[in-house]
Amino acid sequence: MSNDEIIYRQMLNAIVEHQLPPGARLPEDRLSEAFGVSRTGIRKVLQRLALEHFVVIEKNKGAHVNRPNEAEASEVLDSRILIEPQLIPALLNHWNAAHSDRFRTMVAEEKQAEKNNQLADSIQLTARFHYELATLAGNKVLADFVQQLCYRSSLILAAYGTRGSVGCECGDHSELLDLLDQGHADKAQHWMSHHLKHIKSSLILDSKPEENIDFQKLFGR
Asked: CDD domains of this UniProt entry (predicted)?
């Protein structure tokens, strides 16, 4: 694993685990000192996190952890509730045993991450599960939109979610796969809608004040 990837994973985990709360400033000089790398290396990692909506980079102000507001959180989840269940019939037109096996492997990875208390991995894995299902439906425009919504959902879950937001409390993804294997479009649509509504209801939409972050203690080597 490259040094950039290690730094990326550490920062992503810190955001998801709320060690870097929404709104926290991310000064390149202090991060560079904490990680023992150049500011150029830190800038590359911040740019990657910004592409995934975890970080916001403002000209002349630097970077900070993105802070989605309550309205944005609701709109993102409501959009997914509207779109993803409607993709199920088209998805079933392409569904086969190989797809079932592939997605069951993803579910096993999700459960392992949950078992190991790897919240960042759990959030990313559940996002991948959803947008790869959308891709399989065959509508690239909608699939790309769902992918962006899943990235934004990942940030929302990192900011306002609980472990229950990505665990079995919101529904085991293998239940959906069972319905797809059986060809039950209506039941699968209902499951997906209920699943996403449960995730939305699990969010704790309160503001967390920015903390004085000790980057050396958090990331120092």
From this structure: WHTH_GntR
194 and 129 both lie in a single domain: yes
Note the pLDDT tens digit of each residue in 183-207.
999 999 999 999 999 989 888 776 5
| Domain, as residue range, for 29 | 3-67+209-219
pTM of the model: 0.75
User: 168 and 138: one domain?
Assistant: yes
In the chain, how many domains are there?
A: 2
pLDDT of residue 203: 85
Residue 61 identity (one-letter amino acid): K
90-123 pLDDT, tens digit each: 999 999 999 999 999 999 998 898 888 887 788 8
Looking at the fold, whether 185 and 139 belong to one and the same domain comes out as yes
